[in-house]
Structures are given as C-alpha cells and as structure tokens.
Amino acid sequence: MGAVRLHRVEEGPEDGPVVVFGGSLGSDLRMWEPQVAPLVEHGFRVVRYDARGHGGSPVPPGPYELDDLGGDVLALLDDLGVDRVHFAGLSLGGMTGMWLGVHAPDRIASLVLCCTSAKLGPPSMWADRARTVRAEGTAAIAEAGVSRWLTPGYLERHPDRAEFLRAMIAAVPAEGYAACCGVIERMDLLDVLPKISAPTLVIAGAEDPATPPAGHSDLIAEGIPGARLEVVADAAHLGNYEQPEEFTRLILDHLERA
C-alpha cells in the first residue's frame, strides 16, 4: 500500500524549527490543541496531522501496518519540504515515532514519546476490539476509550471536555480505527529500540491504564540509548490533554536541549 496524503494543520513561523505531532488511536489532531500556542510562542513551526483512517485523512481499506503509518509521515515531510523535524507522538503516534527513529534517522532531529508502548498486547485484545468496531462502529467503544484517556477525577471535574473527547472517538471511521488496531496487534519494536539515535524523551502518565509506566515507558527508555523518562502525576493515557502545562513544559525543555 502506498502512502496517503495526511490531513494536517500548520501553525507558527515558516522559518521556525518544525515539530510534528502524531496522535492516539481514536483521536484527531485536536488532541494536541493545548500544546500549539506555547510552542508557537517559542518560535516553533507546529504541524499536527490525522493518522490514516482518522479525522480528515483518507481511509484506505485495511490491513494497515506500522510501515504504512511511518511512510505516511515521511510523505508528509516531503510534502512540507522539510528534511528534519522534531517528532512528538502519543500512543499510536509514539509507535510511529519509534518507527521513524529506526527507519528514517536522518529525518528525525529528536523524539518525544508520550504514553506509548513498544509492544502492547495481548494481540487478541486488539483483534476483539477491531471486530467490535467493524460490527458496531466507534461509538460502541467511545465511553471505554475516554475512561482510559482521563483519570476518574478529571472526568468528574470536566464533563464537557470528556464529552468532547468521547465525540472525537465516536467520529473516527470504523475501518480506520479497526485497521489501526491491527497495527498495534502486530507491532513489536522492543528489539529495534537500540537503533534509535535521536535524542529521546519518554513521558508517561502515572495513572495510565493503557500503557502504564512499568512495563511500557520504562522499557522504551531503557531500550533507546540516552533516553530520559519523566512520569507525570495525575495523568492517564491522554496525559498531554489532562496535564497540559507539565507535558508542554517537558516537551519544550527537550526541544530546546535538542
């Protein structure tokens, strides 16, 4: 399967260092809204995209592989006319970032890997979820998705934001979501992590039920030479949205070091 032309939004100075943001399974580029203004204010050119099968991007028939998602981003960089970028990804976006770090090291100036995993089993869970979504649509799993994305306390304090995110998941095309479940089902990056040479920051949510720090973020940080791990309190899986100030601070600090 060839690359698809990803839907993207660009903000910030045209001559600024480029930061590309890749999102979670079930999200669209609006999930990164809290990070945009602070990075633009620091002179970065911010590019957010919808993964294939999500948001405004094309929905080719599955199966998809991680090679496809990574190839889409490389095509995006070519389309933008940029040689090297900083890449920040959360969950599925972080998996794409690791693929880029392994397969296109000359294009990646630095990596920020948020609330993600290099191997996220069991495979049967992803196959079951894909079957559910193909049969019943993404609305059927939206409530469970939000309960992984946000801590119970945040859900209680911000029902409007929870509803915004619930609707975001429910709007994802069933085939796109299910085919990306297949990507995660078959993904295993643990053995290739040492090939990543880009300066890497790994950020975890202390209360993330989907990719908890122990067994996921710690393995990534241990596997990538020189990587640094930061665990953010009171954050579940969509940590950048729930704890935007701390995630943005960590991202900016890493970008400025890199």
UniProtKB/TrEMBL annotation:
Q: Domain (AB hydrolase-1): give its ranges.
A: 17-133, 184-243
Kindly indicate whether the keyword Membrane belongs to this entry: no
Among InterPro entries, the record links this protein to: AB_hydrolase_1 (IPR000073), AB_hydrolase_fold (IPR029058), AB_hydrolase_sf (IPR050266), Fimbrial_membr_usher_CS (IPR018030), PcaD/CatD (IPR026968)
Q: Which SUPFAM superfamilies match?
A: alpha/beta-Hydrolases
Q: What is its EC number?
A: 3.1.1.24
Q: What keywords would UniProt list here?
A: Hydrolase
Q: Which residues cross the membrane?
A: none
**Pfam annotation, one family:** Abhydrolase_1
Gene Ontology MF annotations: 3-oxoadipate enol-lactonase activity
What protein am I looking at?
3-oxoadipate enol-lactonase
